[in-house]
Amino acid sequence: MTTTEPRADRFVRELAELKIPDPAAGRAALWLRLGGTLMVLALVLCVSAYLLAHSTTDPLEQRDAITLGLCGVGAGVVGGALFLRYSLTGFLRFWLARQSYDLDALAERLIDAQKGRG
Amino acid sequence: MSALLQLSGIRAAHEGITVLHGVDLSVAAGQVVALLGPNGAGKTTTLRVAAGVHPAASGRLLMGGRDVTGVGPQDLARAGVCLIPEGRGIFPNLSVRDNLLMMTFTGRSREEIEDVAFARFPILAQRASQAAGTLSGGEQQMLALARGLATDPAVLLLDELSMGLAPLVVANLYEQVAEIARQGVAVLVVEQFAAAVLGIADHAAVLVRGRIERQGRPDSGFRTDLSALYLGSPT
Q1: Residue A108 and residue B133: Cβ atoms within 8 Å?
Q2: Do A24 and B70 touch (CB under 8 A)?
Q3: What homologous superfamily does CATH list for B3-80+155-231?
Q4: Which residues of chain A have a CB within 8 Å of the CB of B112?
Q5: Does the beta carbon of B29 lie under 8 angstroms from any beta carbon of chain A?
Q6: Partners of residue A6 in chain B, C-beta under 8 Å
Q7: Residue A45 burial (10 A CB sphere; 0-12, 13-18, 19+)
Q8: Where in chain B is the domain with CATH 3.40.50.300?
Q9: CA angle B225, B229, B232 (to 5 degrees)
Q10: Chain A within 8 Å of B105 (Cβ-Cβ)?
Q11: How many Å apart are CA A20 and CA B138, to the nearest integer?
Q12: What would the pLDDT profile of A48-75 be if each residue is shown by its tens digit?
């Protein structure tokens, strides 16, 4: 890493290039809520489609119900993916931090025990 | 040179309890700023806000003139902000060499990282194969600093460097910190024991109950006021 550019100048330049999301937006929470809403919507669409299909003998209306049902399935898939993406990320970050902390604590206990014996 | 790190009206809370009540502080490149104050004043929270680890409830965090409030610690770290936390943040079960090896994620080679670390802290070269947890407190702090330097920081945030160390070791460590700052790094040091850091600080601030009560050059007048700020003014 050989550069003649002073570190402070490089820092300012790199910060200027950094894509900073609007901190006020809280996008992760928004996507998570959207995912949950889509899953609920999917359920409503599918039940509506089922009821619509059974309330008529008109094939055209039943095709509408099929379309509605497929939209429900699509919304469910997209909603589920969004929900998993934005809920699992937080959980996995927490899990990783927990693992790291536990390993550190274990190592400290082992070293203390070894010092006690030695 | 304008401030590389600037906290402007920062307020922060822990579990709904406000611990910082509008902190204003700035650190320029090559400057050492000491943030002093009694236990529980909010010094560590200030550092954590500066590193992006703790969210600010209000106020602005500026780096290099750009508003980076709310930016994740990973992005700030990538840009050049390095936090060395209280308790050193090393891996005690790994050897000194492996602790340094883990810093290769920054894109620097193992040799380059070791060269910088061992040149600055020759004792670490002698302890290269030793488990970090078995080093003395001062050596562990040196390792923490060496790991920090491996990230090529532009802003270095140090939390309680002197914790649990002998005065001579602390003086040596702060000499190294001053040397790091002379290379153009902006250094913000949080310290409970004022005497340890005032010798190298260009600027100092005293935080009491989440408010900056006094800041300026750490001259004799500043030092005289310190005890009153730590203990409270006589009534």
Answers
A1: yes
A2: yes
A3: P-loop containing nucleotide triphosphate hydrolases (3.40.50.300)
A4: 1
A5: yes
A6: 29, 184
A7: buried
A8: 3-80+155-231
A9: 125
A10: no
A11: 38
A12: 999 999 999 999 999 999 999 999 999 9
